[in-house]
């Protein structure tokens, strides 16, 4: 064999071996050992070079995809934690900024330690309670409000939040409470028919178990306690005007019974604790009260008529409109409550305005003060609606030197102005929330 022929043979032999090695690498070794490309890994699938892939290769590829997914999740979790930390830091900064920014509070008197009392007001975020808070704070006392916000609102006392003499506790008085105080005004209870009829059992519990808790607390810490009772203990009275000596005419199973009887038991409990446990009790029988911060939709005559007149709607009078009511302005009531607490008098005291109005007359007064186009119309009478209500306040005059001072017209003007502002506020709120929810940006985000 010539040298050239030998060379050709060697070259072609090695080419065949080379080709075989390349084939082996490409289809058997490389797919199993190659590093996956980022894009293919990101999609969880490695580029396949053999079809069908071997079971091992599939397993390996799945493992790689799983690990890549895990790495991604871990990274996202880390980012989330980091963002949460940043958020917490920002919240802390906002809190410390708020704490260091001096807030403007209504001016309060300075009382020295001896004269300053720690006063608990249950239901202090409600209509009457919040006005009582204002007066006692301004007098320089430490005031603690306990409220479950069933009908009360934080907004009623927000102007005191953060004040060193003020504390707001979210608590349901049906559960016991342990704090150190000198005096308690126990006002916690729904007060208007739609509110107290909404959950009659809870109304009874608040006025029985709640009152027991309050009297128990008063006993433990030797505090004086004033119970906010009501003219409803007289029911549909057969005596007119009603003196405190009148025992009442209450339907014990009617729709109002949960409140009327609840308050009667509340009074009974007070005198039982006074007799048996020597707790110092005061009982205020409160008659219809009105003023700013009363509920817009409490279904009572003042709010109903004012709202109807402000909206130019028909003013609706239940029954023939000849039933009478007497209305006291809230500041008069608050003066009476504070005077009663300060007095030594322990028997129940009526706090109300004896100036009597028929409901029909009252509707016309409001229509005139608001000045709209509303007409006054009579509708079906309410069940158990008392026909006459007028307090005999001889006792309050004699024992507390108290009587209401605010004339109906000026009290109503203040209340109408409050309701007008509240309506405007709620209209503004509705408008801005409508704009927000209709905004194209939000529509894009919403699913
Ligand atoms: N406003 C009146 O014309 C009137 C008349 C007679 C008696 N009263 C009595 O005066 C008190 C105050 O009446 P208002 O007109 O301010 O009523 P309101 O509804 O505005 O206030 C009552 C407050 O008690 C709170 N409350 C209710 N149940 C509670 C519970 N279980 N635990 C803690 N808080 C609770 C409510 O959230 C609310 O803040 C009531 O006891 C009421 O019976 C009021």
Task: Please tell me about this protein's structure.
With 447 residues, the protein is an alpha/beta fold. The protein folds into 2 domains: 35-82; 118-432, Rossmann fold. It has 13 helices and 13 strands. β5, α7 (257-277) and β6 (281-286) form a beta-alpha-beta unit. The N and C termini lie far apart (84 Å). The site of nicotinamide-adenine-dinucleotide has 28 residues, from α4, α6 and β5.
Q: N-to-C SSE series? A: HHHEHEEEHHEHEEHEEEHEEHEHHH
| Strand proportion | 5-15%
What is the spatial order of strands in the main beta sheet? 3-2-1-4-5-6-11
| Count of runs of 4 or more consecutive helical residues | 13
Hetero groups? nicotinamide-adenine-dinucleotide
Which regions are unreliable across 5 or more consecutive residues at pLDDT < 50? Answer: 28-47
Q: Averaging pLDDT over every residue, what do you get?
A: 88
What is the CATH class designation of the largest domain?
Alpha Beta
Largest sheet: 7 strands, parallel
Structural category: alpha/beta
- Determine Rg (CA atoms, Å): 38 Å
Q: In oligomeric terms, what are we looking at?
A: single chain
Question: What CATH architecture of the largest domain do you see?
Answer: 3-Layer(aba) Sandwich
């Amino acid at each position: 064999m010539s040298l050239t022929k030998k060379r050709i043979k060697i070259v072609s032999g090695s080419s065949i071996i080379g080709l075989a090695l390349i084939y082996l690498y490409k289809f058997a070794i490389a797919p199993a050992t190659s590093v996956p490309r980022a894009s293919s890994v990101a999609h969880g699938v490695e580029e396949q070079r053999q079809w069908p892939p071997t079971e091992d290769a599939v397993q390996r590829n799945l493992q790689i995809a799983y690990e890549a997914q895990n790495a991604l999740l871990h990274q996202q979790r880390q980012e989330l934690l980091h963002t949460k930390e940043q958020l917490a830091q920002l919240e802390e900064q906002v809190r410390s900024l708020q704490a260091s920014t001096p807030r403007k509070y209504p001016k309060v008197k300075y009382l020295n330690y001896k004269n300053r009392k720690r006063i608990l007001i249950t239901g202090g975020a409600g209509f009457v309670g919040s006005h009582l808070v204002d007066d006692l704070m301004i007098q320089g006392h430490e005031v603690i409000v306990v409220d479950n916000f069933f009908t009360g609102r934080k907004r009623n006392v927000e102007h005191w939040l953060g004040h060193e003499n003020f504390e707001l506790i979210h608590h349901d008085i049906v559960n016991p409470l342990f704090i150190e105080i000198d005096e308690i005004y126990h006002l916690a209870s729904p007060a208007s028919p739609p509110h107290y009829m909404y959950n009659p059992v809870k109304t009874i519990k608040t006025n029985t178990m709640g009152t027991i808790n309050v009297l128990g607390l008063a006993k433990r810490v030797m505090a004086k306690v004033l119970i906010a009772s009501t003219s409803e203990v007289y029911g549909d009275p057969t005596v007119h005007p009603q003196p405190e000596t009148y025992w009442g005419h209450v339907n014990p199973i009617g729709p109002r019974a949960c409140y009327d009887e609840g308050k009667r038991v509340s009074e009974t409990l007070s005198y039982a604790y006074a007799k048996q446990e020597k707790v110092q009790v005061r009982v205020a029988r409160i008659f219809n009260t009105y003023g700013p911060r009363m509920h817009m939709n409490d279904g009572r005559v003042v709010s109903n008529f004012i709202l109807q007149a402000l909206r130019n709607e028909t003013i609706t009078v239940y029954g023939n409109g000849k039933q009478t009511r007497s209305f006291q302005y809230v500041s008069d009531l608050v003066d009476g409550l504070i005077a009663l607490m300060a007095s030594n008098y322990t028997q129940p005291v009526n706090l109300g305005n004896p100036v009597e109005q028929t409901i029909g007359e009252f509707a016309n007064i409001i229509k005139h003060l608001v000045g709209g186009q509303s007409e006054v119309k009579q509708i079906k009478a309410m069940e158990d609606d008392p026909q006459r209500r007028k307090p005999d306040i001889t006792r309050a005059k004699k024992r507390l030197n108290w009587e209401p001072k605010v004339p109906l017209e000026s009290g109503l003007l203040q209340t109408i102005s409050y309701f007008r502002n509240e309506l405007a506020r709620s209209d503004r709120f509705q408008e801005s929330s409508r704009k927000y929810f209709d905004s194209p940006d939000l529509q894009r985000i919403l699913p």
